[in-house]
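Prompt: May I have another protein with tokenized structure?
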Amino acid sequence: MIEKIKAWFTPARRKAIYVFGGAIGVFMLAVGFVSPLTVSKAVDILTTISGFVMALTNLLAALNVPKTDV
């Protein structure tokens, strides 16, 4: 399972996801689909999601440490 995630989540795909997400967020704010108040209320949810992503990336990094370095 981890190998499939590592194989799919390449640096180029991560960059594309970040750029796409940022563009969608800016667009939604610009057209008034979401308000700044809505965004500020969503900070807790985004913090939780970010924590999960950080935990996943730390796990992937830990799995990539060569056994000779430990």
In short: Residues 6 and 14 are 11 Å apart (CA to CA).
